[in-house]
Amino acid sequence: MKKRQATLGDVAHEAGVSQQTVSRVLNNPTLVSRRTHDKVMQAMNTLHYVPNRSAQLLAGKAIPALGLITSSLTFHAPSQITAAIKSQAEERQLQVAITMPKAVEYGILQAVFNEFRAQHIRGVIINIPMESALAERLARENDDLACLFLDVPPETEVSCVRFDHRAGASACVNHLWELGHRQFGLLPGPASSISARLRLGCWRDSLHRVGVTNAITAWGDWSANSGWARTFELIHANPRISAIIVGNDQMALGVLSALAQLKRTGAQGISVTGYDDTADSLYFQPALTTVAQDFNLLGQRAVERVLEMMNQPQKRVMELLPTQLIVRQSTFSTIQEEPTAELIAQLKTLINQL
Predict the structure, then answer these.
(1) How many domains does one find in the chain?
(2) How does pLDDT run across 58-105, given as a tens digit for each residue?
(3) DSSP assigned state of 319
(4) Quick check: is 156 in a domain?
(5) 137 and 221 share a domain?
(6) Same domain, 152 and 271
(7) Per-residue pLDDT tens for 286-322?
(8) How many CB atoms are located within 10 Å of the residue 218 CB?
(9) Which of 120, 134, 159, 285 has the greatest count of CB atoms below 10 A from its CB?
(10) Same-domain check for residues 102 and 170
């Protein structure tokens, strides 16, 4: 005999709450206390309760879901951010509808917003590089949706959560400067990327503050292959380069490979810094000095903030998340240490014996 599927009433009875409370957990979890939410979720797990999404749609009810517009998941950062957002949403019993548009154009993106609207989705996280004018237009023309952007210029008048590029980029420059480096190569991502341009601008500002104005720039495309190819261009442009600052870890992997081919590694080689602190960067040869961005934190904040905006439509969110420089073996000092007094005394003794 087929086992009867658990109902909303069964869950309410198991959890010791009303059916209305169970409905709130499913449709608007931010209105329920964490303790009540956990009780209801435990009851659902015990009874193997499955919400009837089709019935909700037929009844015209909003399915508890968020929309996510993202860049290609073949790159580390977008894939990690997507995974973090999905994980955080699932903890709150929210589905995530994910789309990767073919181009960052108004018509294509507006069609995505319209599709989300047709699915009764009321909160959208946008993780694609977008210029201010386009982001502001989309937010303005879709003001019935809670739109949270993750990759827009700092001056953009939209709700956003993003990392502090200035702190991360400055930390790379300051670290290398303190190690004695004076000749720099800069390798950001593509010029179309907001993050790439922000990092490059911050690198240049930090270098200018210490008097460096001759850094060489070559644009990459986030891939290891472009890091490999641009390394040869940078060194050809300035053979005296002693440090290359790179816009992400994947390109930095290509840089390290090119330097190994050129035999420019080790203590007399060229220092390299990356960005993102991917899981693999610890195992590069040498292990990569890089800027860590906590993508799990970004996912958590993004979900929390877009839910707040759904509950408070007039709320404007602007949050800056911290970064941290992780120092490993791919950067080293160019400063020659002064001989110690003991070494000088030993040399004098040796000379006197000759």
Answers:
(1) 2
(2) 445 555 689 999 988 887 888 999 999 999 998 888 889 999 998 899
(3) E
(4) yes
(5) no
(6) no
(7) 999 999 999 999 999 999 999 999 988 888 899 999 9
(8) 19
(9) 159
(10) no
